[in-house]
Every structure is written in structure tokens, then in C-alpha cells.
Amino acid sequence: MGWTFGLPALLVALLVILLTKPGWRWFYIAGATAKRDITALYAYIKLLHLIKKYEKKNMTIADIFHTNVSKNPDKIVILSETQSWTFRQLNEYSNRIANVFHSHGYKKGDVVALLMENRAEFVGTWLGLSKIGVITPLINTNLRGPSLVHSITVAKCSALIYGESFTEAVEFILKDLPSNVALYQYNNEARTPVSGNAKDLTTLLETACKDKIPASAERPSHHDKLVYIYTSGTTGLPKAAVISHSRYLFIAAGIHFTLRFQEKDIFYTPLPLYHTAGGIMSMGQGLLFGSTVSIRKKFSASGYFADCVKFNATVAHYIGEMARYILATPPSENDRKHRVRLVFGNGLRPQIWPQFVERFGIKQVGEFYGATEGNANIMNHDNTVGAIGFVSRILPQVYPISIIRADPDTGEPIRGPDGLCQLCKPNEPGVFIGKIIKGNPSREFLGYVDEKASAKKVVCDVFKKGDMAFISGDLLMADEKGYLYFKDRTGDTFRWKGENVSTSEVEAQVSNVAGYKDTVVYGVTIPNTEGRAGMAAIYDPERQVDLDKFSENLAKVLPAYARPLFLRFLTKVDLTGTFKLRKVDLQKEGYDPSVISDAMYYQTPKGKYEPLTKEIYDKILNHEMRF
């Protein structure tokens, strides 16, 4: 009908949109977030293209790694203070591992645990086992006693490989391990005495073939299980989260494309390689994309940027607690001497974010969020201070993640009259979820080895009958532009020193060590400190607990990050209310000695418990004590 009709009709339609829902505000949001969303969409398309290519070729992590070996055999892939391994060396070591364990009868689908500190052999060991289809649970090196036993048995391991520095920890649990678990001790030198019935892995590797893997070994597939990574989840002892070859690729490649990493980058990570952050996000850049990754055995605040200078790093990895410790160090020539153009990680507090980037001259921060076992991973790639990622307001269907209304104490979804979940409005806290789509690496939920534990992380009938989503257990909030901000954890888990701490596990161990006394464990906040510190309230009206023996025995069964920082000895306990409600009450009361009459203690840096006086309490508030 021509412009005489069409143009007025278009103007009327535009006017209707502006005056009704979504209205002019939608166009403002679209304009303000278009660059962010398009950049992320482009990275996501590249990611899906890469995944499809490797899936079509049925390539494993070892296969992709081998393309880099062929391309740059003499380039350094892993660098540390004591080691410098090329792609060729790492490949040869992994081949030796594959040949030794194949000759000992291990095959595709078997499970062999690994307990070793950050070093090149750690990566070479699980990589070599993967070449013959063996799954490797990566054990948290802080675990001791029952937690360590549980991590080995829950994964149904048939063998354990451990470094010589963990000999004492392994000997302590020998009597509790199943008889079928074979032990392999890796020593720094060959022909060194090993513990008990353990095999001398170092000596065995000397004569193993380094050039190729056994032709008779059954080859794993792209979607087969690669490693197990342990997480405390929401309750109970450590849970073994399943990481397949395709999942490893998705995590490493996702952050690679989103933050535009380059092959020439040199990465620095002092994070443990048994966790997703250090072991996949950083190490994956070396194995899959041909970069050099520099590692450190143990994090040092004063050594962080000194290491970056030493290793010539261009990208550095952190967790929030690290950033605070680094910022607290005295000024140094290394503050600006480094070549780091980008830092990435999770948990950088908005309160210190500006000071951190200003002092150290960091051009870009990549803050991410995601659970090891989950499918809801997000990334803040545009330097928005405090945001952990975003959900697109204009293209929400591309990456289906949401925030739904939930009980802040239990994490249970709050459903509407139709029985379905309800979306949160902007600036309304809720639980973060990710839609589950089977067969899609970016949306599939692999969960834990324990299927019952996996079922607890899935919510059904979300936005329509029959659909499913992974529920994170974390409270997040989205602003009007879709930027996401972390608020808190739900349920009985808190985060301390970069680790998830399960209160039920700690309660059990504290109660045992305290002579099976009633115990409640909860997280409490410390000013200017990330996460929550553990506090245990023990019902001991007659004060029978010997604190010296208590601290000594607790160190045998709990890792340092899980040991309560504060103790409170209750003289009476409310047995009429629910345990949960009482825990909430105790948590609200905190650890202020001026308002609590019960005896309280704090843990010193040496692990001893000393009285928590008003003077000590004031020092904690004034940030004069470091934990």
C-alpha cells in the first residue's frame, strides 16, 4: 500500500511499543548491553563450532594435546620453580604411565586415584591414564583420615597413586582402605624405599616405553569420563563430580574464547591442579591450545607478582581470597614490573576490585562463576566491577540460565499456583539454575558418581511440566541490565579459603573428637574477609574437652580450611526447637564475647585454641589479625 500507509503504521507500532511493555526501557537496556551480548555470542558460536569439530572426529583430550605436541614439540608447556617440561617431555611421560598401568592390567573404565602436589607429573599421570581409558579421581591434597578414605572409596578406585610427601597420610588410612586398592608411590628419585606394599612407580617408569601407547589398549571416546573432581556440594562428605573429555574441553575452551586468550600467552596459576580452576581452566590452555602454563606448589601472596615477573606471565589466575592477601603485601617493584595484561578467577570482592587493578596495573579482569558438577557457568568479560557474569536481557534463549525464587535457608524453589518455578525480578535474590539439555555439552548435567547425590541437584517442572534444570544452591541477584552478583550460599555449606565446607561433615568429625558431644557447625563472617569462617558450638556444660588434644586430633581428620576457626562451649541447648532453627540462632549471635556468656576460643596460626577475649575480638574487627 506504499509509504503513505506503511510509514505511519510503523510509527504507530513503534509508539505502542514505547508506551507499553516492554516499552522504551527495553531499547535502552538493549543498547547498553548490545556490545557485551554480541561479544559473548560470538565467543559462544566459536566454542560450539570447536566442540562440534572435535565431537565429529571423536577426539579425546589426549588427542587434542597430541596435535600441540606435533606442532610445537620443544615448546615449554609446564613451568615451575624446579621444572620446565616441553610438550614432548609431557607426552613421553604420559606414554610411560599408560604403558606401566596397561601392563599391570588396568583398562578402559577402571578408576585410579591420584594424590600429588602441583607438579608436571600430576598432569602427565592423569593424561597418561586417560590414554588407556582409565578414569582418574583427583584427590584434594588437604584431605586426611575419614575424608581421604571416603574420596578413594566413593569413586570405587582400584588403585591409588600418591607422591612421597603424602606417605604418612596414606599410611594412616591403610587399615581403612579396601583390600583391592593397589598402591603406587611416586618418589623424586628412582630406587627409593616405598611404604609397605606400595609399588615403586618412579622405578617402573624408567623402563617403560615413552614413544607410543599400547596398541592393544581400548581407546576412550569423546564423551567418556576423564577425571573426577571433588566438591563438597551442599551436604555431606566430598562428592566426586564427573568430568568427561567433552566437559573438560567445554570448560577450558569456553573461558579461552570469552576472554580471548592467545596461544602465545604465558599463564600463571598458584591454584591446586586437583580443582577445576587450576586443573582445567589454566592447565587446559596448555594442553588444548598450546600455551605455556606456569605453576606453583603453594600460593604465596608476596611471591605472586614476583612469579609473574620470573615466568614472564601475561595472564594470571586468582581466587578472591588470594587477591586480598596480595593487596595486603607491602608495595614492591614487582607491582608494575610484570607483563600481566589480564587476571581471571572467581571471588574478587567489589570492595577491593578497583584498588587491585589500580595498584597492579591490570587492564582486564575476567570474573567467572560456575560449579564443577554443574552446567550453569557464567563470565564477566567487560570489567564490570563486582559482577560474576550476566544473563542476556535481549537474547536469553541462547544460553538458558535463570534466577528463580527460593527459600534462602533451604534453597528449595518457591513455586507458583501452577506448581512451576517463578523468575526473580531485577535486584531480587534467588537461586541460580541452568536448563538441562541431554546430549548438549554446554547444557548437559553429568553430576556426581553418586547418582542419589546427583538427583538432589536437579529440579523438575521448572517453567513447564517435564523440563529440568541444575540448581546451584547459591543465591544470586541480577540487576536491570542482567549483570549477576553473588549474594550467599544456601543450606548447610559455607565457603572458606577458596573451598566449600560441608557443615554436616565437620559436625561429625568435631563431635567424634570432642567425645561424641552434641555439636553444631556454621559459618560466620569476619570483616574484610571473603567467605565465612567455621564456628563450632559444642554442648559441654562440664567442660570435659581437652583443647590441646582436641586440636591435635582434629588436624588428623579435617583439612585446615574445614577446621573451625572459633569454638563455643554451650552450657545449655534448646532441644525443643528444630536443629536447623537453633543453628540459625547461633549463627546470628556470632562470636562477640561481650554479648555471649559461653566460653569461646579462636584458633591461632599454629592451630591451637586460645580464649576469645574482648581484646582479641576487637583486633579481629579492626583487621589486625589475619586468618
UniProtKB/TrEMBL annotation:
<dbReference type="InterPro" id="IPR045851">
    <property type="entry name" value="AMP-bd_C_sf"/>
</dbReference>
<comment type="similarity">
    <text>Belongs to the ATP-dependent AMP-binding enzyme family.</text>
</comment>
<dbReference type="InterPro" id="IPR042099">
    <property type="entry name" value="ANL_N_sf"/>
</dbReference>
<dbReference type="InterPro" id="IPR020845">
    <property type="entry name" value="AMP-binding_CS"/>
</dbReference>
<feature type="domain" description="AMP-dependent synthetase/ligase">
    <location>
        <begin position="65"/>
        <end position="414"/>
    </location>
</feature>
<dbReference type="Pfam" id="PF00501">
    <property type="entry name" value="AMP-binding"/>
</dbReference>
<dbReference type="InterPro" id="IPR000873">
    <property type="entry name" value="AMP-dep_synth/lig_dom"/>
</dbReference>
<keyword id="KW-0436">Ligase</keyword>
<protein>
    <recommendedName>
        <fullName>Long-chain-fatty-acid--CoA ligase</fullName>
    </recommendedName>
</protein>
